[in-house]
Amino acid sequence: MSASFKAGIRLSLNALGRQPLVRRASQLMGFNSNPAGVSVGISNISIPGTVAVYFGDGADKIYQLTQWLPVLEDLHEKHEVLLVFRSVGAYKAAGKISALPRAFVRRFGDLMDLYDDNDLKLVIYVNNSRSNFQSLDHPRLVHVHVNHGESDKLSMVSNKAKAYDKVFVAGPAAIKRHEAMLIDFDLDKLVVVGRPQLDINFAPELEPSRKFDVLYAPTWEGENEDNNYTSIDLYGTAIVASLLSNPAFRVIYKPHPRVEESKTPGVAEGHAKIMELIAEANAAGGEHIVSERGNILAMFEATDALITDVSSVGLDYLYLQPEKPLIISDRRSNRERLLRDAPIAQACPVIDQDSIGGVDELLETGLLKDENAQLRREMRNFYFGDLELGQSTERFQEVVADLIETREGQLAEFKGWHS
pTM of the full predicted structure? Predict the structure, then answer.
């Protein structure tokens, strides 16, 4: 077949659109090179592994898996771990950041065959993707939800938690959160494992300066207004401008990974303005830092204080650096609701519509005249119990091992998926 004739056929097929017969003809003629467009069965393929980590979303949400990878790599030394993806984009993205074995499974039937044909015992889920329910359909495995952080965001508690065999949580605060927000939920599903992601010794990504280094780390705007906790659009410019105006401070701006590509007008505009302010300050001799893609956990130790929103960042900082000042924002400016939904607010100054007018004084007092150290220590115990560094990883691995051992004993009476 000549190249020109083949090109003509390809143009004709493209003109007909994405009808099923057209797509099939394109595949047969080799025009469709996108793996996501081809269904390849994987039955009877032996893949080693005891623990599967299921990720059903695309590459845009890979950050939800990323923070678990060091923990999973440690677990892999004791129980072989297999990363399972339903998106080619996420599959490829994970391959760039981890050497863990991974598989791309497009079709539901192939996913069930993957579980059927191999010796997997337990599946971990790092988010509440709707596609998780396809994986949950397999009855032989232990299904464990771990979420991708510990925060007071509304998204941290979902009615979907009822579907998993076990839900790993950080500590007492998470238990109270589930108890308060879910009806007819079996609290025995909850297993406290702390925050094993915070036990990792990351290579430092930030050098401390001779000034008071303040990390401003706002979250993104969420997928709906109920899950919108960002300060960027409402207070971000004022916060950064105030910090830059005080010669005692060096600013480190580290927004959520999804802020950089945000199309939400207020957030995009606020982010651009903050970047502009920092660039102008640096042009005048400042040494402030912008880190859009760095590992925020690797920055904590070199900073002197944190300003953030209701998110996992503030609680991670509380766990790792409880002796350092912490300030959070409240975009709803409802102090009663904030104290109820985010108890950490009891232990730190709050930036909201009522206090933003005096942000210069709030920041100087809250950061340089810290009066909340004892309250933060109490809040650390409330969120994480008495776990110290290293103990979360130990508990996580012990619980996983216990669940696998228990399930192996239960399988002796299991009749099988196809029986």
Answer: 0.80
